[in-house]
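Hi both,

Apologies for the delay on this - the queue was longer than expected. I finally got the pyridoxal-5'-phosphate-bound model through. Below you'll find the protein sequence and the ligand SMILES exactly as submitted, and right after that the structure tokens for the full complex including the ligand.
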Amino acid sequence: MSVTLPIYLDHNATTPVDPRVLEEMLPYFTEKFGNAASRNHQFGWAAEEAVDRARAQAASLIGASSKEIIWTSGSTESNNLAIKGGAAMYEKAPRTAESGRGHIITSAIEHKAVLDPVKRLMREGFDATFLEPPADGIVRREHVEAAMREDTILVSIMWANNEMGTLNDVPEIGALCRDRGVLFHTDATQWVGKMPTDVERDNIDLLSWSGHKIYGPKGVGALYVRRRKPRVRLVAIQDGGGHERGFRSGTLNVTGIVGFGKACELCEQEMDQDRERLLALRQKLERSIHEQLDVVQINGHPERRLPQTTNISFGFVEGESLMMGMKGIAVSSGSACTSASLEPSYVLKAIGVGDELAHSSLRFGLGRITTEQEIDYTIEQVVAAVNHLRAMSPLYDMHKEGIDISKIEWSHH
Ligand SMILES: Cc1ncc(COP(=O)(O)O)c(C=O)c1O
């Protein structure tokens, strides 16, 4: 079997730039270097034209109109603008000591780029509910409905979870918010470009996504802001030249935006075939691991997940040791963004996975460049590494002898 090492299976953390995207971007570094805000000469017009084209490509991918796309530096900024800008615009007035500025509903399994802006708003007088989904990891309409209050002003629920790939009831939650007249934002960073999106059908007011998760460049993202039924307004969080209809000042990253647009176009064209191919590979990976190893668990709902993501706990094996034991395979234990610390993943904890199993989990993120040979090699490596580590584990031996380890009373001397 011929594979080139290392193998990249961490596409939820970031994706490579598609060569077709790079090719589109290159002229905008050099001969087409104009500022899209320069309205009085050709250099500016060429840049503006390129930005407009990208805006149409981005809008088309999510069923929006070009005017509803605001360029940002990525999903972190899009989320901050949607949440802080939305809360400031729709806060309850007049504010009194008894009634806070308004209530926000989000979930405990969001990315930090949602959790932390909401926590900051709490310090500034807003109230918030962090929904904890059940063991299948899915946030549903009824969870949001039960948390709704008179003073709820904003709901922010991610579409696909970055650690497990589980898919929340976003269209249904959107419909609920629409009924109640509450602003609805979704962090769709892991969803858009992989799954079909239509902001009209799916009842979305604000939607964040990012270039580097869809085979575009890093440092560029977009926020969809609904313009009709209802017209959504936001308070800008960055002041300056009034670019992007005043929502986001700052000279546009023309090169990045051109890449983002092209990446959106390719996703729209190739999504269906990528999805089918990657789902088959992911299922092969899961099935083979299940057949060859015992005490493994797929975290989150077994089917309602992104086609290319799986998060697996391997009992009696430490995730970090397993990663070391697999030769030449780049995966992630916990979330890439929190793996600097060795805390078990807060996402897995929130759905009730115990510390032990959370520490033993790996996320496999397949992508456009993943081949079947790479998956076959990965299966071999995972099985060999798990067997090797378990051979050194007295706890695994006890488990095999039928001893229930959770019931053992360890003596302390
Ligand atoms: C769900 C989710 N939201 C937000 C982000 C942050 O995106 P960006 O890197 O574009 O700021 C990520 C990236 O890991 C993500 O997975």
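Main takeaway for now: The radius of gyration is 23 Å.

I'll put the files on the shared drive as well.

H.
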